[in-house]
Design brief:
The complex is a heterodimer of chains A (about 300) and B (about 450). With about 300 residues, chain A is mainly alpha-helical. Chain A has two domains: about 50 residues, no CATH class; about 230 residues, Orthogonal Bundle (MetI-like fold). In chain A, about 65% of the residues lie in helices and about 0% in strands. The longest helix of chain A is centred in the C-terminal third of the chain and has 34 residues. Helix content of chain B is about 30%, strand content about 15%. The chains are: A mainly alpha (about 300), B alpha/beta (about 450). Chains A and B meet through helix 4, helix 6 and helix 13 of A and helix 5, helix 10, strand 6 and helix 17 of B.
Chain lengths: ~300, ~450
């Protein structure tokens, strides 16, 4: 048997790569092909009778006009009659970054407590944390709609405690409501990877820090926080990516133009017959932006892995 | 299990009304307006179809059309045996919760057949499924704007009226509608108009107050109502309000300046915290989220069933501006059709005929909330006192419409004064869409 066909432990060279095949197939079928279809719709035409998108499957047939117009709209220079997308894109970034920051501020201590101090109650706390999220996102948001009504329990509580002088109309296009809704909806997806990262930290490193005279605060800042950086990044990526495409949170908790996100624009166009290419073009633009964030994450993970090997 | 309208969660996302309007583009992608107008020409007479090329015939109330009938897509012959007797299953393709299952059960029992009710999320998806043959249905509920395209593409089959004698029960104007002369392909389903819904405890105005206004939409621009105003999240319906306020009575205009001006008017509402929703009128106004909302008459009929238990619903009011000196308002209807590839076309004809029966149509109305176009329907009989929560076992037997909202009742005469949203050519449709997207993008 030619030695070239064998790996270091004796298996054939294709043995281990085969394990990646299902994942690759999954990626091709559920990511690359759909992504290509979106590009084909964005640069395709319309059915002459019903106005349904007619994808241009061959790149040679792609017409980038709509995509170009959307790019202009994103950059603040919309063509005549085109929707100006820059304000709504900036608003989306503001909402997503604020909600992500809230998730970090609220989620990190929770994950830290469960990982380091919950002891035997760890599993119980994790289950309790996840339990509300067995319910559908839609139902949870609808529950909030009722709680946030002018005569709802939130206003009743806040006025009773004198936090608010009078009931607030939370649902009348309030950015605060939408940002809090986003944070509420996505926070468990931040806590879980954060918990996993914190749980993996070797306790002996923390003990070494304390033995060398560091205070608990210093130990946290110098040891725990740097070692949990990958968890923070992973949690951030996991919640930020879907938040950028979110449209139902502002729809359910507001419905006002004041709180429209870029996902609302995509949803609007793809659900109108002749708007398919426009919706697909906005999707491509958003994907490119999100890809930059994703690349940073991948780069960071690769660097961390390199450093760990050294 | 039967469900109350309040359980129709699907409508939070996208009701058939939403898409009725959102996609009113129908046949949107005509190459030019000239082609559209050519297709609409008045002398587009009965299409016997012999050797004719399919063309898109889009009628208007002023220029009705008869749709082509093709040799390779003829109506079924008369006197055929109903497939029902052979243990067939009637397959319905409709918006979710837009037909009362109990009525379907009645039909199935009468014909000794089974039934299946499959739903679609929007008209685009529905057409795609039927066109590709991915699914075969016996009865389909298209919106009127897509009917010309369905005929041109031979997706639906012409009807044999020998099987539908009950069509005579339907208002003459809709039994011979402008979009499908002589009802060659469709029979009308429900009717509705678009008006103003409000709560008198939040907006202290009466129907008479609205009727006396030069512009009944003015309260939407009144700062006193900031935070409680809603319009439909629907580019045609919302922008039409702007057009009407600007004195434009063409609700299918292709005038870019008029469309942009309507959008600019709606943008003023952003400062008043206007919200665009699809469930605002029928579900959120009864909850108190909105005090004033653009409203379909059928949505308002359903509002009493969304209020908190024990609350008197008489604060809910509705007004259709076309009935005042203002004179402008939209009216519309949906329809039923039989796909060309229906497996039980005779049974499907029987179902269309069954629905055109007065009692059947009214029974369905009692659950759906959208009114049928029946000649025997007496508006006075529809009104009734509030009898408490809906009882699924009885239907709305004591008054289909809350007595305080007589304005929600649609009459045949309303179709003489109401404007109709029609199909738009692609370029015009995109003008509308972009104008509304600009409004909803916020400043």
């Amino acid at each position: 048997m030619p030695s070239g066909e064998l790996g270091v432990v004796g298996q054939r060279r294709w043995y281990w790569p085969v394990f990646a095949a299902p994942g690759l197939l999954w990626l091709v079928l559920l990511f690359l092909l759909p992504f290509y279809a979106i590009a084909a719709v964005a640069m395709g035409g319309l059915d002459p009778i019903f106005g349904q998108p007619e994808p241009a499957w061959l790149p040679t047939a792609w017409d980038p006009e709509t995509l170009g117009n959307i790019l202009k709209s994103f950059t603040g220079n919309p063509a005549a009659g085109m929707v100006p997308l820059q304000p709504v894109f900036i608003r989306t970034i503001e909402y997503v970054f604020t909600a992500t920051a809230l998730c970090m501020v609220m989620g990190y201590p929770v994950a830290y407590y469960i990982a380091r101090h919950a002891g035997k109650r760890r599993v119980l706390l994790l289950v309790l944390l996840i339990a509300p999220f067995w319910m559908s996102y839609l139902m949870r948001m609808l529950a909030w709609v009722n709680l946030l009504l002018e005569d709802g329990y939130v206003n009743k509580l806040f006025t009773f405690l004198n936090i608010l002088p009078a009931p607030r109309n939370w649902l009348a296009g309030d950015s605060v409501t939408v940002v809090l809704g986003l944070a509420y909806g996505y926070i468990p997806f931040f806590i879980l990877p954060m918990y996993a990262a914190l749980d993996r930290i070797d306790k002996s490193q923390l003990e070494a820090s304390r033995d060398l005279g560091a205070s608990p605060a210093k130990t946290f800042l110098r040891v725990t926080l740097p070692l949990s950086k990958q968890g923070i990044l992973a949690g951030t990526v996991i919640i930020m990516l879907p938040m950028f495409g979110d449209y139902y949170t502002p729809d359910l908790l507001s419905g006002s133009p004041n709180t429209s996100m870029i996902g609302n624009m995509i949803n609007r166009f793809i659900h109108t017959r002749a708007g398919g290419p426009t919706g697909a073009s906005i999707t491509l633009m958003l994907s490119m932006f999100v890809a930059v964030l994703m690349l940073y994450y991948l780069f960071s993970v690769a660097r961390a892995a390199r450093e760990a090997r050294q | 299990m039967l469900r109350h309208p309040a359980e129709r969660w699907s409508r939070l996302h996208m009701s058939r009304r939403d898409f009725l309007r959102r996609t009113a583009a129908g046949a949107t992608a005509l190459p030019t307006m000239a082609a559209l107008l050519a297709a609409c020409k008045e002398d587009a007479g009965p299409g016997t179809g012999d050797g004719e090329e399919p063309e898109l015939r889009i009628g208007t109330p002023d220029s009705p059309v008869e749709l082509q009938v093709f040799d390779d897509n003829p109506p079924i012959q008369s006197d055929l045996e109903v497939e029902a007797r052979e243990g067939a299953t009637l397959k319905i393709f409709n918006w979710q919760d837009y037909f009362w299952k109990r009525v379907l059960e009645d039909f199935a029992e009468e014909y000794n057949v089974g039934w299946e009710y499959e739903t679609f999320y929007n008209m685009e998806e529905a057409i795609s499924k039927i066109e590709t043959g991915e699914a075969q249905f016996d009865v389909f509920f298209p919106t009127i704007d897509v009917v010309p395209g369905l005929v041109a593409k031979k997706i639906i089959q012409p009807l044999n009226h020998d099987y539908i004698p009950n069509l005579s029960n339907v208002w003459p104007q809709l039994a011979d509608p402008f979009y499908d002369g002589r009802s060659q392909y469709t029979v009308p389903y429900t009717v509705y108009h678009t008006g103003i819904g409000w709560r008198t405890d939040m907006v202290d105005l009466s129907v008479d107050d609205f009727a006396a206004m030069d512009d009944p939409w003015a309260p939407f621009w009144d700062a006193a109502n900031a935070g409680i105003i809603g319009l439909y999240d629907d580019y045609r319906e919302a922008l039409t309000v702007g057009l009407f306020r600007n004195g434009v009575d063409d609700v299918n205009t292709g005038d870019g300046a008029a469309i942009e001006a309507a959008g600019a008017l709606l943008q003023e509402l952003t400062a008043l915290d206007v919200r665009y929703t699809i469930d605002g009128a029928y579900a959120k106004m009864p909850e108190g989220v909105f005090g004033l909302h653009e409203a379909w008459s059928g949505d308002m009929v359903a509002t009493p069933y969304y209020i908190k238990t024990g609350t008197d619903p008489h604060f809910l009011q509705y007004f259709w501006p076309a009935r005042s000196a203002f004179g402008l308002g939209t009216v519309g209807n949906d329809c039923l059709a039989i796909p060309k590839n229906a497996q039980n076309p005779v049974l499907a004809h029987a179902f269309l005929n069954y629905y055109c029966d007065f009692k059947v149509a009214m029974k369905n109305f009692s659950w759906v909330g959208y009114q049928p176009a029946q000649t025997q329907l007496n508006p006075d009989d529809l009104l009734g006192p509030w009898k408490g929560p809906f009882d699924a076992s009885k239907g709305w037997i004591d008054g289909y419409v809350l007595e305080s909202m007589p304005e929600t009742i649609v009459t045949e005469a309303d179709f003489d004064i109401g404007k109709r949203h029609l199909a738009l050519p692609a370029e015009t449709d995109l003008l509308w869409q972009n104008a509304f997207a600009t409004v909803t993008a916020g400043g």
